[in-house]
Amino acid sequence: MNSFFNYFADIFSGVKSLLIGMSVTGKYFFSPGQIVTQQYPENRKTLKMYERFKGEVIMPHDANNHHRCTGCAICELNCPNGSIEIVSARIDGPDGKKVRVIDKHIYHLGMCTFCSLCVKTCPENALAFGQEFEHAVFDRSVLTKILNQPGSSIIKGTEE
Amino acid sequence: MASTNIYDNFVTSLTQSIHNGLYSSMSPTWALITELAIIGFVFLMFYALVGLFLVYAERKVCAFMQNRVGPNRVGKYGIFQTIADFIKLLMKELVVIKNSDKLLFTLAPFIIIIASFMAVAAIPFAKGLHAIDFDIGILYVIAVSSLGVVGVLLAGWSSNNKYSLIGAMRSGAQIISYELSVGMSLLTIVILAGTMQFSEIVQGQEFGWFIFKGHIPAVIAFLIFLIASTAETNRGPFDLAEAESELTAGFHTEYSGIKFAFFFLAEYMNMFLVASIGATIFLGGWMPFHVSGWIGFNQVMDYIPPTFWYLGKTGFIIFLMMWFKWTFPRLRIDQLLTLEWKYLLPINLFNILLMAFIVLMGWHF
Known about the structure:
The complex is a heterodimer.
Chain A lengths: L1 H29 L25 E3 L7 E2 L6 H5 L5 E9 L5 E11 L8 H5 L6 E3 L13 E3 L6 E2 L6
Parallel strand pairs in A: 2-7
Antiparallel strand pairs in A: 1-5, 3-4, 4-6
Chain B lengths: L5 H20 L2 H38 L15 H11 L10 H19 L16 H9 L2 H11 L3 H32 L4 H6 L6 H4 L1 H18 L11 H4 L9 H26 L12 H8 L3 H20 L7 H29 L4
Helix pairs in contact in B: 1-2, 2-3, 2-12, 3-12, 4-5, 4-6, 4-12, 6-7, 7-10, 7-15, 10-12, 10-15, 12-14
């Protein structure tokens, strides 16, 4: 007798849970104002990206065209795809010793998988992720970028 | 009981004048052939339009239920999206599969589409507006629509692909099981209506649709019909035959281009078919909503053309089926068979007895 009641209890509890599910989707259907997706090309002007978004690797520069990169090449070693190449130069330091500085921080966007190992391992926090995501280009060579701006130098006090 | 609907005369006189015009201008044999060709052409057009519209409607309904916008690029609100898709499918290559059974592979989509195409013939769209009015209409529809599974099985078998075969076998098990429930839930109403002829079933619902007339057993039968017919059309949550996440696309994995479009169209057409059978049997088909004795009210209802009533009811059931699809998770094959053999079938058998008893005692409205 108990299993007989369980049989019907199963049916009614099943129907009840199905109705709960249908009420949720039904509510969404009849309130189209809640739409969460965005109309991308139309909202380009007002599009706001999020801090966490990994668009591309950038090297932040301050107002005086200073960056924090020492040219230590840890990012180059850590990059699994070889999408970073460091070209460093040696110049005379203020106390007469030779000092290593970054000449070119070459970043191949086309090979990057946005794993963020370079950003995480950078000892000076010289790298970061930018929010730019419209990377489509007609020529692949455009995807190779030099991250340090021309004429930039390292912030004083960051050197080894 | 004489119907006073103002639109009935229009439909009857239109079909009659075409009929007379054809028979007066050519020999009876040729007139018959021409008539068949006209009907075939009309249904083909109807078929394509309904298929295209339903694909669009499904995508929009799905989008709104998931808080999305849905297709909105081709035309205003994306209404031409499905036409663009159809043109794309027409231009695609028909891939020939190595070691596949070429004849059956080509035959399968046609069998599926012919099965649903034949069943449409028996559906009454308005008074006197159906291709053929069998006196065993329900039996005919059940028989013809279950032919579709042959196409699914052939498609899976001939594709030379294990996923297709698994999908086809699942579909076979599913349709054999659920055919039973669809048939029995329709039988419940046949007991109440006392006929299997679609035109008389609709006429019998002039004052009160069967779902109201038969109250408790009719409502139970309607629910069972909804569940079982959703399963029979291979739609979610019973879409085990194509289960994208397990079987890539099930029985139509290997199909491309227009052959795939046939499967796609047949799925939506079957949905339309099942919904229109449900609307005709349970919700009165093209019959407007009448209340016995309220003459003024009935007359107002009569001003809405019967085809609109029919389409509205069909659309309602189609919406319900889409709602199911986009709410419920897919059943496993054992859950599917449990639902049929342990729940739907016993309830259905009891329900038929209940309906027979109620009809015997005259406890219906």
